[in-house]
Amino acid sequence: MNALLAERNRLEKRLCQSVIGSLQRQIQLLQNEIAQLDAAIKAHALQHTSLQKSVRLLGSIDGAGLRVALTILAEVHQISASERARVVAAFVGLTRQ
Q1: How would you class 17 by CB atoms within 10 Å of its CB: exposed for 0-12, middle for 13-18, buried for 19 or more?
Q2: Domain locations along the chain
């Protein structure tokens, strides 16, 4: 995501057309890669019952969609009880503790 932002920021500068075209191709490539990775991560999560349960648990917290839930799981690994999920959500700033 940082690389995508960096390329978009470069477009704001005064550049020649060939550089602008190159940056636009790079941005498109990065967007495609992000979309493919998002799809692969979602497919992986849907294949594993334990991940599905954790994603549903985190998704029940206001402000936590699929991407947020999977990001939290990548950092925390196991969330087994709803109280634990609330503590994690508070830690990442989604809710108050």
Answers
A1: exposed
A2: 1-46, 48-97
Closest by Cα among 86, 78, 32 to 53: 78
Question: Residue holding tokens 């690389």?
Answer: 3
Calpha distance 8→75 (Å, rounded): 28
Q: Which residue has the tokens 């999560």?
A: 45
Could you list the pLDDT tens digit for every one of the 97 residues in the chain? 788 888 888 888 888 898 889 999 999 999 999 999 989 988 988 898 878 888 888 888 778 788 888 888 887 766 655 556 667 667 666 666 5
How far apart, in whole angstroms, are the C-alpha atoms of residue 31 and residue 4?
Answer: 7
